[in-house]
Design goal:
Helix content: 55-70%
Shape: globular
Distance between the termini: 78 Å
Strand content: under 5%
Radius of gyration: 20 Å
Number of helices: 9
Order of helices and strands: HHHHHHHHH
Low-confidence stretches: 1-8
Structural class: mainly alpha
């Protein structure tokens, strides 16, 4: 009897590779036994060659950053509501909803794991997070074009984004209601009164 031959690995398109690798990262982060989040482990889980991951992302840190930003773009959209307050509130509401989900909390963990250990990895990681920074900056530019006076980018990061991430890192649930509005009110009130920033 002829021994059964292993099924040949089907060639994936670049987008299929990216999708499989992203899902493998989420699956490994979700593993209750604390699966090793290495490039070989990710490649095995995704069913791709580890060299494909290195060619596309360069480092584990850059891959994690791409996973995080891609999921943020999907689950934490930057909506155009017609006003700066509306845009920031809708964004904060989506953020609160995201960090209340298991996957949202995993993404926060992935941000911490993506902290680079080398100068090269730092640059690769920064390229992905720059996508999100540019999107946030677009909210400011859109508001300015409407004649509004948006707060500086760093103030948005410090007073709107950082509180959400810190709560997720330390496992502190946001208040059941009104938290996004509270953050936005503080941000815009502080922006209107420079003495309080």
């Amino acid at each position: 009897m002829t021994p059964k031959q292993p099924t040949p690995r089907l060639r994936k398109s670049p987008e299929q590779v990216r999708s499989a690798v992203h899902q493998a990262v989420i699956d490994l982060l979700s593993d209750p036994e604390g699966a090793d989040l290495t490039i070989p482990a990710i490649a095995q889980r995704a069913g791709v060659n580890h060299t494909s991951i290195y060619r596309r992302w360069g480092s584990r840190e850059a891959l994690l950053a791409d996973v995080v930003v891609t999921r943020l773009e999907r689950d934490w959209p930057l909506t155009d509501t017609g006003t700066l307050r509306g845009d920031l509130t809708a964004w904060a509401q989506a953020g609160v909803a995201s960090i209340r989900t298991p996957e949202g909390r995993l993404l926060v963990r992935a941000v911490a794991l993506s902290m680079p250990g080398s100068t090269q990895a730092q640059g690769e990681r920064a390229q992905h997070f720059e996508r999100r920074i540019h999107a946030i900056e677009h909210i400011r530019q859109r508001a300015a074009a409407r004649g509004e006076n948006p707060p500086p980018l760093e103030q948005i990061l410090d007073q709107l984004i950082a509180p959400l991430y810190l709560r997720a890192i330390f496992g502190i649930e946001p208040p059941a209601t009104g938290y996004p509005e509270l953050l936005v009110n503080r941000l815009l009130n502080n922006a209107a009164d420079p003495a309080t920033t």
